[in-house]
Specification:
Layout lengths: L20 E6 L4 H14 L5 E6 L2 H7 L6 E5 L8 H8 L6 E6 L8 H11 L5 E5 L20 H11 L4 E4 L6 E5 L1 H6 L6 H10 L4 E8 L16 H5 L7 H14 L12 E6 L4 H13 L4 E10 L2 E9 L9 E9 L7 H14 L1 E6 L16 E4 L13 E2 L1 E2 L5 H10 L11 H17 L3 E4 L2 H10 L9 E2 L6 H7 L14 E6 L8 H11 L3 E6 L14 E4 L7 H8 L3 E4 L9 H8 L4 E4 L3 H5 L6 E4 L3 H13 L1 H12 L6 H11 L26 H5 L10 H18 L5 H18 L6
Parallel strand pairs: 1-2, 1-4, 2-3, 5-8, 9-10, 9-13, 13-14, 14-17, 17-18, 19-20, 19-22, 20-21, 22-23, 23-24
Antiparallel strand pairs: 4-7, 5-7, 6-8, 10-11, 11-12, 15-16
Helix pairs in contact: 1-2, 10-22, 16-20, 24-25
Length: 754
C-alpha cells in the first residue's frame, strides 16, 4: 500500500527509518565541485553512513583521498548520459533498506538525506524517489535558458519549503543528480540493463514506479548533463503539468532566482513545539514570549483560545510566535468552549490537523482556559506548566476569603455562590466544575505528562488540595527574565548608604487590581506619602484613583525596554508587591530583584518562598496597619535597606536561558524521530514574497482580548491606510483624511507616562 499525504499511515510509519546509506558518485568531475559536494554531505546529512563510489583513475583518487570516507573504485568509467543510473546501480547495488545516490558536483541543503528518506516512507510503494532540482527538463525549477539559478541551494530550498505542498507524485524520468533507492530486494532480483531506457521500461513492465517529492531541492546546475528524457514518449513529457503545484512553484521560484532574491530567513531543521495559552496576555503571555526567545532547540507555534467573557474559546487560533498578529490558521468552533472542555471532537480534530499539517511533535500547555483536556491526552510529549490553579479551581487563585486548604463539593458550591473571586466562569454549574476537576486529576495521574510549576508553593498547595497528587512526580523551574532586560535592570554602581534625611522613595510595578493590592495601597497611601515619594509604573487605568494624591507619580504604561530608564529616574529605595491572593511566581518581584531593589511583599504564595526576611526584603501580612508600620520602621532604619540591596546585588537571578535549559533537562528522551519532522521542516508560514508584512497590512485583525484603546488604535491605523489608497475618496482629500485618522490613532494610544 502506498502512503501519500492525506492518507493514514500505519503506526510503524510514524517514525523515520533508523538507518540509511549515502553514496556519493565521483566520475572525474571538477575536483573543486567534488570537494564542495563532499563538504555538503558531511555537514548537512543526518546520517554518518557515507561512502564514495568512484571511477579508478589518478585524478579521482587525488580528489577523494582527503575525504576520509570509504571508497569503492568499481565504477567502470564515467557513465554515458543515456546509461547513467543503470551503470551506477550495476556498480554499486543497494544494500540497505534505503540508499541515497548523489552525483559529485551537486549541492544539498540541511538534512537533505532524512527528508528524502521521509518522502520515500510516505510513498512506500515507490522503488525510487527524486528531489526537485534546477536544470532537469521535468523536475527542474529553471525557466528559460538560465544555466545558473542565481541563488544558492539553501536559499532555493528555503523558498521551496514555503511554496511546496509536501507531496510526492509519480514521475516518468530519471533524475539528474540524486536518487533514493528503496526496496533493495526488488532491485537485486532484476537483470542488468544496457541503458536507462531499458531500466525505465523494466520498471513499467513490473508495475513499479519512481516518484518525485516537492519537499526537497538539490542544486544540479553544475553537472555536465541535466537528465536524459529521449526515451520518453511525448505524453510523458507533457504530463509534468499535472504534478501538484509544480508549474506554480516553477514560475514563482524561477522569478525569485532570476532576481537573486534571497529568503528573508533561512530556518534550520528543528522539531516543532506547540505552546498553548489563552489570549489575556499578562504574566503567562510574557512567559511564552521569553521562552520562545530563549529556546533555540525548537521551532515554535502558539495556539491560543480567543473569545469573550461568555465563552473563552469561540475560536482556536494558531500563531507563528508569541505575538498575536494574524493567525496562520483559525478554527471557529461550532460549540464554543465556555470555560474548559472535558473532551471535544472538534478540538481533537484540531490536534490531529496540527500534527499532520504543522508537524507538531511536542506540547507545552500553559493554560487550559478556552481549551480542551484533550490536550493532555494527545499522545505527544506534553509539559503542563502550572501558572494557575485552573481547571482544578474555577476561582483561579484557590482562595475563598483566605488561601484554601481543601475543596469539598459543598465548599465549591459555597464558593460559586459567595466568593467574589469566583467571577471568571459564572456559567459553569458546580457539578460541571467538579467533573472537569476529576477529569483533570485523572489526566495528571494517568497520562505521561511532565508537570512543572514556577515555585514550590504551587506544588505544595496542589498536593494539599488534592492528596492523590502527593506521590505524583512534579518539578519546580522558576521563571527566568530576558537577558537583555536583566542587563538593563542591573544597577552598575554598588549600593550606597541611603540619606536618612531624604524622603523614602517607593516603587510599585504593574496593574493595581484588587488581587494585586490596589485596595491595600489605597488604604495606606495618604499616610505613606507623608514620608515617602511613590512611583506607580505600568499601572494602566487602575492608577486613575491615585492621580490626585500628592507625592505620587504615575506612568500608565511602558515598553519592557523602558523599565530600566524609569527606575533610574525614580531611584527607588524600596519596591512594594502587595498581592492579596497567592502568587504562583511574580514577575514583578523578579524585575525588582534584578534591579537590586529590596521589596516589601505580602506573604502570599510564591512571595513568601522567594523573599528572605531581613536579607533581600521583608514579608508582611496583607493588612494596611502592619504594612504601614513596616514601612515606617524601614524609613527610620535606612541601613537595613542598604544591606538588603547589597545582598540582592550578590544574588544570581535566573535568566530565560537558564529556565529553558531546565525545561529541556525534563523532556523525555526521544528514541525515534517522528516522520512528520521531515515533511517541510523549514516552513516559515509566511507569504513567500512579503515575509508576512504586506499581506498582514491588507487585513484588519483585532485580538478580542486586548484593551479597548489598543483595539481602537489598530482600527484607526487600518482606516488611515485604507483612506490613503481608496479610489472612492478624491485624491486631494486622501492625504488629509489619512493624516486626521493617524492623529486620532496617536490620541487613542495608551499613555506612556505622566
Amino acid at each position: 500500500m502506498e502512503h501519500y499525504p492525506g492518507r493514514a499511515c500505519a503506526d510503524s510509519e510514524r517514525w523515520l527509518r533508523r538507518s540509511w546509506q549515502v553514496v556519493v558518485v565521483v566520475t572525474g568531475s571538477d575536483p573543486a565541485l567534488c570537494a564542495a559536494t563532499l563538504d555538503d554531505v558531511r555537514a548537512r546529512s543526518l546520517t554518518q553512513d557515507i561512502e564514495i563510489l568512484a571511477v579508478d583513475d589518478a585524478t579521482v583518487r587525488a580528489t577523494v583521498g582527503a575525504a576520509a570516507l570509504p571508497v569503492r573504485y568499481t565504477l567502470a568509467g564515467a557513465p554515458a548520459p543515456d546509461a547513467h543510473w543503470s551503470a551506477i546501480l550495476a556498480a554499486r547495488p543497494p544494500t540497505e533498506e534505503a540508499t541515497l545516490y548523489l552525483l559529485a558536483g551537486a549541492r544539498v541543503p540541511q538534512h537533505w538525506d532524512a527528508r528524502l528518506v521521509a518522502a520515500g516512507q510516505r510513498a512506500a510503494g515507490a522503488v525510487g524517489v527524486a528531489p526537485l532540482c534546477w536544470a532537469h527538463p521535468l523536475l527542474g525549477l529553471r525557466q528559460g535558458g538560465a544555466r545558473s539559478p542565481g541563488l544558492d541551494v539553501e536559499d532555493l530550498d528555503q523558498w521551496l519549503n514555503d511554496y511546496a505542498r509536501g507531496e510526492e507524485f509519480p514521475v516518468a524520468a530519471w533524475p539528474s543528480a540524486c536518487l533514493l533507492v528503496q526496496q533493495p530486494d526488488w532491485w537485486r532480483s532484476r537483470p542488468g540493463w544496457d541503458d536507462d531506457a531499458a531500466l525505465f521500461w523494466d520498471l513499467r513492465g513490473q508495475g513499479r514506479h519512481v516518484v518525485a517529492t516537492d519537499a526537497l531541492y538539490v542544486d544540479d546546475s553544475r553537472l555536465a548533463h541535466s537528465g536524459e528524457t529521449g526515451h520518453l514518449a511525448p505524453g510523458y513529457l507533457e504530463a509534468d503539468a499535472c504534478a501538484p503545484g509544480l508549474a506554480t512553484m516553477r514560475h514563482a521560484l524561477g522569478q525569485l532566482a532570476a532576481r537573486g532574491e534571497r529568503a528573508a530567513v533561512q530556518r534550520a531543521v528543528r522539531p516543532v513545539q506547540l505552546h498553548v495559552g489563552h489570549s489575556w496576555g499578562g504574566g503567562l503571555g510574557r512567559w511564552i514570549a521569553d521562552y520562545l526567545a530563549a529556546d533555540t532547540a525548537h521551532h515554535h507555534l502558539v495556539l491560543r483560545s480567543v473569545g469573550d467573557l461568555n465563552a473563552y474559546g469561540r475560536s482556536i487560533c494558531l500563531y507563528r510566535g508569541a505575538d498575536m498578529d494574524v493567525p496562520i490558521r483559525s478554527w471557529r468552533l461550532a460549540e464554543p468552549i465556555v470555560s474548559v472542555s472535558a473532551g471535544s471532537a472538534e478540538y481533537r480534530a484540531i490536534l490531529e490537523e496540527l500534527q499532520r499539517e504543522f508537524s507538531v511533535e511536542s506540547l507545552v500547555v500553559s493554560s487550559l482556559v478556552g481549551h480542551s483536556l484533550d490536550l493532555l491526552r494527545s499522545g505527544l510529549p506534553t509539559t503542563l506548566v502550572m501558572h494557575e490553579f485552573f481547571p482544578f479551581c474555577p476561582a483561579l487563585y484557590a482562595t475563598f476569603g483566605a488561601p484554601c486548604q481543601s475543596c469539598s463539593p459543598q465548599r465549591l458550591r459555597e464558593c460559586a455562590r459567595d466568593n467574589p473571586q469566583h467571577r471568571f466562569f459564572p456559567f459553569d454549574p458546580p457539578q460541571y466544575a467538579l467533573a472537569v476537576r476529576e477529569a483533570f486529576v485523572q489526566c495528571l495521574l494517568q497520562e505521561p505528562l511532565t508537570v512543572v510549576a514556577p515555585s514550590d508553593s504551587v506544588l505544595q498547595r496542589y498536593r494539599q488540595l488534592e492528596p492523590r497528587l502527593a506521590q505524583r512526580p512534579m518539578h519546580v523551574v522558576p521563571h527566568g527574565l530576558d537577558i537583555a532586560l536583566m542587563d538593563e535592570l542591573r544597577r552598575e554602581a554598588p549600593a550606597q548608604p541611603a540619606d536618612a534625611a531624604a524622603r523614602l522613595r517607593v516603587v510599585l510595578l504593574g496593574r493595581l487590581s484588587e488581587e494585586k493590592g490596589g485596595d491595600l495601597l489605597a488604604a495606606i497611601l495618604p499616610e505613606l506619602c507623608a514620608f515617602a515619594d511613590v512611583w506607580l509604573l505600568g499601572v494602566g487605568e487602575s492608577g486613575a484613583r491615585f492621580t490626585s494624591q500628592p507625592g505620587v507619580e504615575i506612568v500608565t504604561a511602558y515598553a519592557p525596554q523602558e523599565l530600566g530608564g524609569l527606575l533610574r529616574r525614580a531611584r527607588p529605595d524600596l519596591g512594594l508587591v502587595l498581592s492579596t491572593v497567592p502568587e504562583t511566581f511574580c514577575y514583578t518581584l523578579s524585575e525588582l530583584h534584578a534591579a537590586g531593589i529590596p521589596v516589601v511583599a505580602t506573604a502570599m504564595g510564591a512571595l513568601a518562598e522567594r523573599v528572605e526576611p531581613g536579607r533581600n526584603g521583608w514579608l508582611v501580612a496583607a493588612d494596611a496597619a502592619v504594612l504601614l508600620a513596616q514601612l515606617r520602621h524601614l524609613d527610620r532604619q535606612r541601613r537595613d535597606i542598604t544591606a538588603a540591596a547589597a545582598a540582592l546585588a550578590a544574588q544570581p537571578q535566573p535568566s530565560a536561558i537558564d529556565m529553558v535549559r531546565a525545561y529541556a533537562a525534563l523532556e523525555p528522551a526521544q528514541a525515534e524521530i517522528p516522520l512528520s519532522r521531515y515533511r517541510l521542516p523549514r516552513r516559515t508560514w509566511r507569504n513567500p514574497y512579503t515575509g508576512g508584512a504586506a499581506s498582514e497590512a491588507r487585513a484588519l485583525h483585532i485580538n478580542p482580548g486586548q484593551p479597548y484603546r489598543l483595539a481602537l488604535q489598530e482600527f484607526l491605523r487600518h482606516s488611515a491606510g485604507r483612506a490613503a489608497q481608496s479610489p472612492a475618496v478624491p485624491r486631494p482629500l486622501r492625504r488629509a483624511l489619512a493624516s486626521l485618522l493617524h492623529r486620532l490613532a496617536r490620541l487613542a494610544a495608551p499613555r506612556r507616562g505622566a
